[in-house]
Amino acid sequence: MSGFDLNLLKVLNALLHTGSTTGAAKEVGLSQPAVSAGLKRLRHALQDPLFVRQGRMLAPTEFAQNLKVPLREVLDRTEGILSGSNSFSPKTTEAVFRLLGSDFYAELLLPPLACLLAKEAPGIKVQLVDSRLDQDIEALENRGLDMALVPQTMFPKWVETRDLLSSQFLVIARQGHAALSRRGTVPGGVMPLDLYCGLNHVLFSAAGKLQGQGDQALAALEQRRNVVMTLPGFSGVCNVVSQSDLLALVPEQFARRVAPKLGLDIYQPPFHVEPVQSVLAWHTRLSTAPAHRWLRDHIKALLEAV
Asked: What is the pTM of this model?
C-alpha cells in the first residue's frame, strides 16, 4: 500500500460502473488517456488484467467483478467520513439520486418534491426508475440505485428501511357506469359482491400477472373476478377505467388524487383487502451521508402530507 495511489480506486470504480475508458473519464473528470494510464497502473499493482475487450466495451475479469461491491462501499464510507453534516448545504450541493418506484410516486411525491428542490436544493436532480422490485433491489448494493420506494417485504440485511404510507384499496369506475347506475350503487358506498365479480376488471401488474391481492381476498370467499387487461402503471389503469366499463382496485391515495381529474367514482370493496405498507429502502452504507439523509427526510415529510 505504501506505493499505491488511492486515487486509482476511483478510476477502477468508474471503469466497473461504465465499462469503458471514455465513460470512466467523464465520471471522474479525467481525460481518456489518463484513465487508460490509470488502468495500466492498476493492472500492474493488482497483478490482474482487470478488464478484457468485449466488442466496444470492457468486461471485468472475475477478480475485478468481485471488487465491485466492496470497492463501492469503501468509497461511499470514505465520502461519508469526509463529508460531515456541517459541510452539507442543500443550496450548493450538486447530486443525482436514482429512485426506484412506480408511478404511484410519480403522482403523489414528485410534484411537491420538484417544488421543494427548485426552492431549496436546485443542484439536486432526481430520476425515478419504474421497474420491478424483485429485479432491481440488488441495484441498491452496486449503487445503480440510491433509494427504493416499494412495498414492505423481506429485504437483505444490508438494506435499511423507513415506513412511508399505509394504503387501503378502493374500487374505481367511470362516472355514469350503466351497470352500477341500474343497481343504484352509490359512490362512496360498498359495491355489491355479485356486481363486482360480474363485471370485467383491469389490474396493475408490472409483470403482467392476471391475479393480485384482490383475487387472493376473493378466493378466501370462494369468489373470483374476470381480469381482462393488465398495465404496468396505476396511471394507465385509471385512464382505462375512465374510458371504459372496466373496474379497478387501486390504492386509496392514488384513487382520491386522480378521481376528480379523470371523472371517476370511488367505492368501497365488498371484501377485506390487506393494506400495503410502503417503505423507503436504501443501503446501510448511505445512512449517514448528509445529502442522502436530507432527501430521505423530505420524502418522508412530503408523503406524510398526502
From this structure: 0.73
Mind listing the pLDDT tens digit of every residue in the chain (306 residues)?
667 888 899 999 999 989 999 999 988 889 999 999 999 999 999 999 999 998 889 999 999 999 988 887 788 777 766 665 556 789 998 889 999 999 999 999 999 999 999 999 999 999 998 765 555 677 787 667 899 999 998 888 889 999 999 999 999 999 999 999 999 999 999 999 999 999 999 999 988 899 988 998 999 999 999 999 999 999 999 999 999 999 999 999 999 999 999 999 999 999 999 999 999 999 888 888 889 999 999 999 999 988
Give the Cα separation of 294 and 278 in Å (integer): 19
| Nine cell digits for residue 23 | 465513460
SS3 124: strand
CA angle at residue 57 from 56 to 63, to 5 degrees? 150
Fill in the DSSP letter of residue 165: E
Position of cell 370493496?
Answer: 269
* Contact in structure between 95 and 291 (CB atoms under 8 Å): yes
**Segments in 251-289 forming alpha helices (H):** 252-262
